[in-house]
Fold:
Amino acid sequence: MNKVKCECGHVNPEGTVLCEACGKPIEGNQHIDGNEGNKLLNMRYDGTARRSQTYNKSIIDKIWSFFSSVKVGVWLIVIALVASMVGTIFPQEIYIPADAVSRDPAIFYEDRYGILGLIYYQLGFHNLYSSWWYMVLIALIGISLVICSLDRFVPLYKALKRQKAKRHETFLNRQRLYSESEQVTPDDIETVKENLKKQRYKITDENGHILAEKGRFSRWGPYVNHIGLIIILIAAILRTTPLMHTEEYVWVREGQQIVLPGTNGEYYIENKEFIMEVHDENDERFAQAIQQEGVVPSNFQTDIVIYQETNASVPGAEPELEPILEESIQMNKPAKFDRYTLYQSGYQVNEFTNMTFKVHETDDPEESSLGSFTIDLTNPDSIYELDSGFRVQVDQYYPDYILDNGIPTSETNFPRNPAFVLSVYPPESDTPEISFIGIGKNIDATGENEYKVGIEDFELHDVSGLTLRVDFTLPFFILGAAIFMIGVIQGMYWQHRRIWIHPKENGILLAAHTNKNWFGIKKDIEKSIENTPITMARDQQELDE
Amino acid sequence: MDLLNLSSTMLYTAFILYLVATLFFGATIRQDKSERRKKRKSGTIGITITIIGFTAQLVYLITRWIASGHAPVSNMFEFMTFLGMSMVLAFIILYFYYKLSFLGLFALPIAMIIIAYASMFPTDISPLVPSLQSHWLYIHVTTVALGQGILFISFAAGIMYLIRQVDQSSLNKGSLWLEIVMYVMFLFIGFIVITTSFNIMDYHAEFEYTEAGNVTTTDYHLPAIAGPNEGALLTEGVMEPWFETPTWMQGADAGRKFNSVIWSFITGTILYGLVRLIIRKRVGAKLQPLLKNVKPDLLDEIMYRSVAIGFPVFTLGGLIFAAIWAQIAWGRFWGWDPKEVWALVTWFFYAAFLHLRLSRGWHGEKSAWLAVGGFAIIMFNLIVVNLVLAGLHSYA
Ligand code: HEM
Structure:
């Protein structure tokens, strides 16, 4: 490798812009940091040799240089930003509102947003955040972040370790803060040193050449926060594997006990009660708002019991269930057991549990019963034999009846608005009479039926929608986020400040550099040269006015 | 309720005090160099009054908290008011570091516009729906607001930088865009003026219309230029709407909101026109001489530093605490809900800002534009996303 030896004797790696030890600009490399023609030196990486700026031959060099460019990084971030915005123009598929004509995206977007909606859907923007190209974009940001950090961290670390207190004059007079002073006595310098120490600067004195430095650790902030981001990205990748993360959604009726999906039959859940409460409209604090906006719920809660199957090892045996947890799940208060977390996620009130019908003569004004039967709506029989000899056959069952373009169908499979087509066989007869019956509907298909079926009674229940989740990636996300926060705070709330004093016969040169907050370092300098004849460092930045 | 009365009086007091403080900060600008002592005194009085005003607003917050039983950050009025308060707090903190009185002259009025804007929304205490009943709500919302308040200072400094530095000798890209920013502020003022005027007159017009399949009514407080889609006017003796809100405008109460937007444009434009008639210059050009004594370097530094300080706070509140709360409430820490996405967009934007600052050529004017852009994104998230792209966080 073509090492570069500086006149101070230090041997620098190839591609160095400013000598690691004394800071003297190395001829022929000044274009790398754009120092030519500028009064001030680019100090961002202390003029260290970065791989990306040094080697540019092989394809690997080229890829490395590409990804380590901040410009590329910023472009990636900006593209991700714009893409994210696009995803909010219309709702994402999962947020298609419940009142939509259809929750089928192929219909919904065009129906509601016209041609733009159709295009949006056809471009796949209705699932933008899980699209392959969005993931690729995020992955590219990740790659860029790793390469760019490595590219800079290692040389910067070495350079700051190797720096000497004694600096070359050109290095000093091309710093942004710089001054020359005459008639400075050793006592004055001692005062300055004392003052700097009081401000928690670390002083290195090399034959009267002084380096005062503080907050160097803040230079590592960006690298720490980038590590945090990488951990978060890795956690996100892990989360896509079923090993680390699973999610199930279950509907459980009140009083129902079912096996919890996704637990390999190990756990059962019983829904004892679903409770929905609303804010009291007589509460004078809220009266006005409730009057304006209508009823406001205050609590969604499911009282559950979780059972563990203790007999699972014996195949075919009756499950033996042992209650292990009894809890009230509320929003913001999930239940936890084993590695599972169970969240209150939805509800359906007033589903029909069962309905009791009676048969009577059509023209009997008293409607006296000729026998009744009860249909269990979650599990209807196909034929009901009445004691009086009637036979009722269920021809059609619509749990959630609607008329769709004149055709009767069921909107969902939940018994929310049950309706039936029934064949009633009078005793000893083989010719049935057809009736259609539902809530508030009772239609006689032919108009000649001798017998009529009427609703006598019904029972209702609520249903809870619960999300069961296993997520082992959470600790990684938390770790990543914590590291990210530490890194940003480290880099933002502290700054790396350096002040150099360079003795000359009869005077000194003073120069200073900070990676941010110039206002702060100026105050530091002002404070430390108080009561000495040292000239305050002048800000040499060429203002873009 | 007494406590509630006290609370709103305190908010009102704070508002007036901010106004008075602005005048004192304004007084620091005119006097020339020889009157430095007077200037300093004027600044000191200004910041003192600001702090008293802030304390009054703190009392507003606490009394309202006691009255409602939950932290008052749960609807549009409460959140915007709180945001205004964090802006003032951020200003106070940065004032003590940089001692720049002019900053008050710009930051306080904008914070006041935000607070006044907030007061145009219903101020009733609303009960909390189950998902909002969590301490994480307060932690998340207050941290976000604080972060946004600090980022707001970068906007204020950025605007000052632009007013100071943009070439006003002709209409060019810079002066035009700056003027557009000024005009947008007039639109906010227009909204406040027109809403307040009709509130004083106690104007009501009730409409019946169909929303999501249900027949509902809505109460316009401004005369309906745009009525609800296929709505019927119920109130008698008020203006008939000129046209209907088009169907593609979605979301709760789209008609009424659209109508407010139209009114804001009309009033804001008239106000802006009047001001232009009087000053006979672009607003930016008129303000420019005020700032000729402020060092652009210092403005650039304040602008950058407030992003540097605000970015971590925003990340913590807007992304991390938000995720923790979402995890507890819904069982998913991230759900690509529009509000969340816009928090991410804001975060990406400021990350890009910070990275651009690493390279040469992005200091000064370009940075200032970025600071303005960042704040525009924050306001977009607060206003457009809340009121239009409503998701889980909709304040409606
Ligand atoms: C969304 C993703 C990213 C975030 C949130 C982020 C965050 C940060 C932050 C907060 C800083 C400190 C800035 C300062 O001190 O002013 C920083 C520095 C930096 N970032 Fe990123 N970054 C991201 C992505 C990237 C990418 C993709 C690259 C690759 C080009 C990159 C390259 C750098 C570099 C080179 C620095 C400066 C390091 C130094 O000053 O020594 N960052 N980043």
